[in-house]
Records
---
Amino acid sequence: MTVISYNPADPADLVVEVRAPGAFGTAAAVERARAAQPGWLAAGAAARSAALGRAADAVEAHADELAALTVREVGKPIAEARGEVARTAAILRYYAQAPYAPTGAVHEPAAGPGLLLTRRRPHGVAGLITPWNFPLAIPVWKAAPALATGNTVVLKPAPEATACALRLAELLDLPADVLTVLPGGAEEGGALVSAADVVSFTGSTATGAAVIAAATARGIPVQAEMGGLNAALVLPDADIEQAAAHLAAAIAGYAGQKCTATSKVIAVGEAYQPLREALAKALSALSAADPALPGTACGPVISQAALDRLAGAVGSARAAGATVLAGGERPDREGWFIEPTLLAEVPPEHPLLAEEFFGPVAVLLAAADLDEAIALANSTRHTLATSVHTRSLDTALAVADRLDAGMIRVNAPSSGVDFHLPFGGAKAASYGAREQGQAALDFYTAGRTVSLLPAGDLR
Ligand code: NAD
């Protein structure tokens, strides 16, 4: 099979065309990685730390090139692409410290002499399956903790982000078979889950369910970060202008193609009317534009199929009586663009309120009070990140406890979280351990308990 990716802003621009290795090639790559793993672990903490530090240097030294490739291959606006490159380097530097961190503890025996030790060891080969929307940061936030703890890595990037992953691997320049990038699709992804010792997946809910089923059937550790249908709650005491600006960024930024993007805006009581006006104005000001231009917030969506699905959803909502408060149309330009769109009066049973559409389209809802707002926010299975907009700290803390979301952001866009904090959702949005920070170091290692007793008479 051949893997091809195109420029979403200019579909005539073919970014890369490479052969995929197929299932046998994938299994062979995992075997090579398995053979390389003991040497990578034995190289020691200093060697692994230095390799990750050099990788961070290389990413920084090629920041402009990587940002331009991210714009071209996945249509990410240049300002966000630069931010992703900087984050990628920061993640590598953060995990470059991890090889020196303690890997266990010493305990007192319940009785008698001896030492009881706990120690965490790597699983072996980490199989990483990634989406296209963060083509540098997601591969690295999985690979860096896996490598730091002494695993080797086989990464299967999304076909749409193949060129970014191949260039990243070249720049990281790790020893042979320590980090392998395998271009491919479902065949290679499935083969990787069948052969790896630990699996980390990020992508859509349907694919995630298949990956979880296959990995758990093999009895190997697996984590999956999947789709989100994220809400924002705006309370009557919020700064409405500030909330509208944050919401517009969370709806339209990178054309709504972040798993943490906002797609359901819930205005409580008297917040509704002023928010309706302010958000419609803020979104109308962010028209879909060339992602290479410095001022662009909303670029194209990833494919013609994604565009058709979004346009179809907006069309069917309109036909069902929805009001278009902003956008709703395709701009008159080449590429897979749709204007940032805000809909109101959407019928409760419409798919826009149940499924992730992964585009710059949001629905505005009214809630009579906080209880109704929380019920509306929690009414989906895909609760990844929720934002809350209020001036009251008491309300913010109380709401944070009652929301199902894995990540709650107060007076901020739902999208975005620091790279050293646990990352993940609730209910169907996530499976298994959290990503990032210490949680990732724990996920890529298994604990063991060692009891050391005297070999003979101590006297
Ligand atoms: P996708 O599910 O189509 O693909 C994800 C990856 O899985 C790709 O590498 C793909 O080739 C691979 N794959 C496909 N079929 C497979 C199979 N049968 N077995 C193993 N691997 C298989 O998702 P996508 O379109 O690349 O990414 C967009 C999705 O990712 C959205 O749903 C978004 O919400 C989600 N996402 C979630 C997070 C998060 O942290 N929760 C972050 C970013 C993106």
---
Amino acid sequence: MRRPIIGGNWKMNKGLPSEATDMLKKLIPLVKNIDNIDIVIAPPYTTLIPVINLTKNTNIMIAAQNMYFEEKGAFTGEISPIFLKELGCSYVILGHSERRDILKETDEIINKKVKKALNFNLNPIVCIGEHLIEREANKAKEFIEKQFRISFKDLSDEELQKTVIAYEPIWAIGTGRTATPEQAEEIHIFIRDLIASSYNSKTAKVVRIQYGGSIKPSNAKYIFKKENIDGGLVGGASLQAESFSEIVKAANDSPF
Ligand code: PGA
């Protein structure tokens, strides 16, 4: 009943139109027959326009990697949800751990952004996940519950249903150290139970929860086999058309 979603988060890579278009020209034919899952690419702002133009009339949708929670005005360097929607973005990644930890975004800021994105019909992909220190102290669930409660504060059932949650354990991002499918599934069940207890069981069944953190073609199919894992958010392996398309195919072929 949940349509899986695979996101490719390019981070601060492929920000020149020529590199972004080279990659997409390879990727588009490789994934053109994929129809069981949603495919989303998140390029940097500087390549949103060429990427959106190239993916028109394809099965690839576009996300921004961030946005601000105001619509317009004196906010130097920030990007409005209105710009993203008008350009043709369908999704926006919010609260990625790199923004939380390096750029000091708080759960409260992320909550404002989530609400604003939903106001403008951009589907938020909201990242939550613990550091190694919380995992080793057996406090991962406590940490994630706090992120969940504040980041999604005051959302209606319908709004949460449009939101994608990306469980990304920070110790697994860009480290080559993936959570085992069992470790990921345990947290996905925990998040789904949190949704059921704070919203209702229908919403818990509908919300898509992706896993993110060192997904590669070699481990993708084991991760996607888990019942509560509805696809993935891919960083490093999304930068090459071949590796990203293999991950997309693993999700497409998986018995979700
Ligand atoms: P990674 O990044 O696949 O390179 O670990 C995932 C992410 O940050 O979304």
